[in-house]
Amino acid sequence: xxxxxxxxxxxxxxxxxxxxxxxxxxxxxxxxxxxxxxxxxxxxxxxxxxxxxxxxxxxxxxxxxxxxxxxxxxxxxxxxxxxxxxxxxxxxxxxxxxxxxxxxxxxxxxxxxxxxxxxxxxxxxxxxxxxxxxxxxxxxxxxxxxxxxxxxxxxxxxxxxxxxxxxxxxxxxxxxxxxxxxxxxxxxxxxxxxxxxxxxxxxxxxxxxxxxxxxxxxxxxxxxxxxxxxxxxxxxxxxxxxxxxxxxxxxxxxxxxxxxxxxxxxxxxxxxxxxxxxxxxxxxxxxxxxxxxxxxxxxxxxxxxx
Length: 306
Description:
Residues 190-288 form the HTH araC/xylS-type domain. The protein is α+β, with helices and mostly antiparallel strands. 38% of the residues lie in helices and 19% in strands. The chain has helices at residues 134-151, 158-176, 187-198, 206-212, 217-228, 232-250, 255-261, 267-278, 282-291; strands spanning 4-5, 27-35, 42-46, 53-61, 63-67, 70-74, 78-82, 88-92, 98-106, 127-130. Helix 4 packs across helix 5. The longest helix is centred in the middle third of the chain and has 19 residues, at 158-176. The chain is globular, with a radius of gyration of 21 Å.
């Protein structure tokens, strides 16, 4: 019997095992243990996709995914990447008795762009990577586990530490892509990044940064996007938000002071940028961090983005 299809729940769902969970967090991770006829044996159906990305690794059984006009199955060692906005239609493969997969839902940082360019099948948008080597499968599964357990750690820095592990996972995936060749960053791009990081509170112009690294503004802009995957302005905004999150978690400084420290004279504008990138306001982010409790509460250890 094929997995049943369940409708999206209309009410706020606090359990990521079930449909309707809002995924307002910056990162959510878990294990989905699907057995034929079990509670979780239904097809995920999100025609509009999600605001964030999902990466998953099959660790047992087989799953089935519709990607564009094609439906295909995948199994042990297959890693899938669903970009933001990509339709979701997947579940246990009809001929398989189970499908266990580890997954991470996340909002990517701007400089991750190069690591999120995965090969897809013709007409599809879902990225695919196959890990044939058992040692590689164990390494990657452990990274998924570490992201999950670190995020559940209950510390103020748990999310940042989990995001660091996610960066490692994405880089390792990138390295294992067929035809991968490591390309070192241009030292002038690195110098531009360092200069921006050292002066986050200043509204440095492109001309100033270009002069600092001895390039023309147009050449720096082109080289930066080519090597970092995002514009210089977007990268700077990423760094500002990262620093603001750290300060909100680790200091009692007023939001207005933090806004100024990361380069925003207008607190309201800073709050709009922060909410757009993180999903909540600076005040809400600080409040949730101060609670310092496991955001999963008493939920089971296994979770599924349903």
